[in-house]
Amino acid sequence: MVVSRAVSTVLDASLAVLLVSAAAVALVAIPGGDQRPPDPDAAARTVLASTTTAEYQTANGTKRAVTGRVDTLLAHAAVAEHRSTHSPFASAVERAVSDVLADADGRVAVVASAGDGTVRVGERPPPSASVAAVAHDAVAENHTVTITVRTWSA
Q1: Nearest to 100 by CA among 149, 150, 51, 136
Q2: Which of 15, 24, 82, 90 lies 20 to 30 A from 53 at CA?
Q3: pLDDT, tens digit, 9 for 90 and up, residues 106-150
């Protein structure tokens, strides 16, 4: 009979539309396996251009506070570490920059190097993570300082 054929066709078409819709929802709703790290250039622009304040106490007991861009403070902290290890200023900069990194997204680490002086801020990426990095040069007190910003996937 012709009527049963028409009902079957409508049922088949409805089922096909339902399956295609479910497939489209699954493609949009289920996250992909893309494990690329965040763009290190964007992270560097955000973090290094941020302003923060480093508060510390000098050897004679005087309390000081220095406010500046993260890249400038890191450069001067690396030079201070180059001149004398365990500089109170460098430690204060590490604490201040750590707060900036926590506000970023948590998967950013910064290393500033000047000669033998190195300032590291942020956690090391896990061994299984995909890591991307970008390096910037800065000048502090006639020293060239290399600031490396690393980002990684979760």
Answers
A1: 51
A2: 82
A3: 789 999 999 999 999 999 888 888 899 999 999 999 999 999 999
